[in-house]
Specification:
Layout (H helix, E strand, L loop, with lengths): L1 H8 L2 H16 L3 H25 L3 H19 L30 H28 L4 H29 L1 H20 L3 H9 L1 H18 L6 H31 L1 H30 L4 H5 L1
């Protein structure tokens, strides 16, 4: 049942992102302002649901089911967006096969790698924060509060996300976010509630910067007929592969070392992999950079 649910649920975000980005571009709207609705809604819901789950854990299934029905009703009312029917010969349309053929730049490989690193770190927190709260003598209410704090921290970033992308670029934000995700693991792993709250505040610069950078990068570097599939590739990394790695290796680390040490071990592993990916990216940029004519001739 979990597999059946996830098979459909995981596709909602990339599909809705692709649709909303295209409609926002047509209307001259800022995607980050629209995305803020999800952040605010999440922050409110987790506070309420956190308290309810302490009293009746089984209610989560009814809550999610009802929310998805409301979501479906609203999505049904949105206007259709898609590629022009007469665009078969348009150079902006891809006719290739394979993952890389969806994108206009091979740099997407590094975008997905950095997204994987940060998403795996955040996936670890999502998977084991509840278990850690129980070990600390707390309950789902603490998880709800920490989740609300993390969601609220996204709001100021969303307000300036487009400016940050223009100022620093998507790749620099992605690299920075990987190290912030590792720091967040360390802070949450302390088990000290005020410090854990500080760690959850880093959701803004460990998750939302990754999410916004990847979504905008993919929207700007995919062919017109590949936007939904491009967003799906990001979702496969963010919600698929990274979550699998976080659960498998995170579960092993927590069982072998304890949850506290597991957080620290995963933070160290995330940092090492992020440094290795950064070195590889710098070397790739140098090899891909065009050489001056004199140098090329020599």
């Amino acid at each position: 049942m979990t597999f059946a649910f996830s098979a459909f649920f995981s596709g909602l975000l990339p599909l809705s992102d692709s649709l909303v980005i295209e409609l926002a571009d047509r209307s001259g709207l800022d995607f980050s302002r629209i995305r803020m609705g999800g952040t605010i809604g999440y922050a409110i819901v987790v506070l309420i649901v956190g308290r309810l789950l302490d009293m009746a854990p089984q209610i989560q299934f009814a809550v999610v089911s009802a929310a998805l029905v409301v979501f479906a009703a609203h999505m049904w009312r949105l206007p259709e967006a898609g590629i022009r029917a007469n665009a078969a010969d348009d150079p902006k349309v891809s006719h290739g096969k394979g993952l890389l053929s969806l994108f206009t730049s091979n740099e997407i490989a590094f975008v997905l790698v950095f997204a994987f690193i940060s998403s795996a770190a955040i996936g670890f927190i999502g998977a084991f924060l509840g278990r850690y709260a129980v070990e600390l003598g707390e309950g789902q209410n603490l998880v709800g509060v920490l989740s609300a704090v993390s969601a609220a921290s996204e709001i100021p970033i969303l307000l300036v996300s487009s400016k940050l992308v223009r100022r620093f670029g998507e790749m620099n934000l992605l690299i920075f976010s990987c190290f912030m995700a590792a720091l967040r693991l360390v802070l949450v792993g302390t088990g000290i509630v005020p410090v854990m709250i500080c760690g959850q505040l880093l959701q803004s610069v460990s998750y939302m910067t990754v999410y916004y950078s990847c979504v905008t990068y993919i929207a700007n570097h995919t062919y017109e007929d590949c936007r939904a599939r491009g967003q799906s590739a990001f979702a496969m990394v963010q919600s698929g592969l990274s979550v699998v790695v976080a659960n498998l290796f995170g579960g092993w680390a927590c069982d072998a070392l304890g949850t506290h040490a597991g957080f620290l071990a995963f933070a160290l592993a995330s940092t090492i992999v992020a440094v290795a990916a950064l070195v590889a990216y710098v070397l790739w940029r140098r090899s891909a950079a065009p050489r001056p004519e004199g140098q090329a001739a020599a």
